[in-house]
Amino acid sequence: MKSQLEKTGAVKRKMTVEFPAERVAEAVEKAFTNVQKKAKIKGFREGKVPRNLLDVHFKDEVNREAMEILIDESYLNALTEQSVMPVSRPSIVPGKFARDAGFSYTAEFEVHPEVVAKHYDGISIEKTERVISDELVDKRLSAIQQSMTQLEPSLEGAVTGDGKVAFISFKGTADGVSFKGSDADNFVLDFGGGSMLKDFEDQLKGLKKGEFKKIEFDYPKDYFNKELAGKHAMFDVTIKEIKNKAVPELNEDFAKDMGFKTIEEVRTDLKKRMESAAEYEAKNEMIEQAMEHLISKNDIEAPESIIMSELKGMFENFVRDLTRQGRKFEYTGMTAEQFIEKYKPVAKRRVKGLYILDSIAKTEKIEVTDEEIEAKMNSIATQINQPIDKVKEHYKTKEAHDELKYQLFNQKVLDFVISKAKIKSVKPKKAKK
User: Fold this and answer.
1) Residue 102: DSSP 8-state
2) Fewer CB near the terminus (10 Å): N or C of the chain?
3) Beta bridge partners of 164
4) 269 and 231: one domain?
5) What are the DSSP calls for 68-82, one per residue?
6) The CATH number of the domain where 342 resides is what?
7) pLDDT tens profile 291-334
8) CA 295 remoteness from chain centre
9) 280 and 159 part of one domain
C-alpha cells in the first residue's frame, strides 16, 4: 500500500491510497471466506457453498467485500503515514475494481486549520462607565417592592384604575381580523404596570366588576409586533374581578423579609450586587470587542463539520431551555432550517474564535491548573448555595469536567488578552428614541 495527500483547501484534504495486484488478490481470498460463511443456496448447508458457485451467484458481493477489506485495513494506517487527523467523516470514493489488477480509492475530509494568531497584544477596547447612583438603587428597590405586592379583595362597587388589578376577558381584531393573542380569559391587567398599551388601559378605567365595554384604538406604527403595527384594533372586554394592590412599605418588616435588619442594609447590599453586575456586564462587552478584533484580524477558515457540531450543540441548548420553560420548539414558529439559517453565522464566529484563542494559549503557554478547576467548583457551590461535594459529583464525569476546564481555559485566554489591551473608559451611549 502507498498513499499520498493533497491539499484541496485551507481545511480540506484528499488522500489517495493505492494497492498492488497481490494485495487485491489477498483481499479477494478473505472476501470469499467471509461471504461463504453466510451464503445460502438451495441444496447446500449455510457456509458450505462451493467457491465456483459463490463466484456465479455472489460475485458482486465478493468484490464489494474485498474493497471494504482493503479500505478498512488501510485507512487508519494511511492517516498515520501522512501524519494527518481528520475532524470530519471521510467521503470515500473507490476506484475501478478488478481482481487481477491494482486498486485505489480516495478519501476526502476536513482537518483543523493551521492558526497562528496575530494582533492580540495591546489591542484597543472601550470600557463603558457604569455608575450605580443612589437613584438607580432606589429605582431597583422600588421594583423589588412592587414585585412583592399582594392582591387583596376590593370593596363593593370598586372601579378599575391605577392601584388596581383587574381580571378581564377579551376578544379582538386588528383591521377586522383576529390574530394570535387576540382573545383571552382571566387575563391579569395591572393598571399602570405598563404590560398593555396605554390606549387599551385608559378606555377600561372606571369600570365595575361584571361590566362590558367595546374599545377601539390604533396600534403604534412602530409597534414591536410588525403584524399589528399601524392597524386599527377593536376589542370586546368584560371585567370579571377587581383587586387592590397592597404594596409593602419600605420598613423594618420589609428588610427582615429580605434577610436584613434595616432598609439601609438592604440598599447597601443591593448597591453592591448592582455594582458587581455592572462590572460583569462591562467585562462581557470588552470580551465581545476583543473577540470581534481577533476574528477580524485573523482570517481563518473553519471546518464545516466543526461549525455544524457547534450549531448542533446550540440547538440542543435552545431546546433544553425551552423545555425548562415548559415550551416546545414547534411552538416558536421556527423550523430547524430557519434555526440553522439564523444561527449558523453565530456558530461559525464561535468556532473561529475558539481556534484563535487556542493558538494564543499555545504561543503564551496558557494552561488551566487543577487548583483553578477546584477554585471554580467552590465558586459555583457558593453561587448556587449547594454543598461542594454535590458540585464535584456533577463534574465527576469526563464530559462535564472537560467542559468546565474548557470554559476556564477560554476565560483565562480572554483575561490575558484584556490584561494586555489598551482600555479607554467611555460614557454610556444614549438610548435611541
Assistant:
1) -
2) C
3) 244
4) no
5) HHHHHHHHHHHHHHH
6) 1.10.3120.10
7) 999 999 999 999 999 999 999 999 999 999 999 888 888 888 88
8) 19
9) no
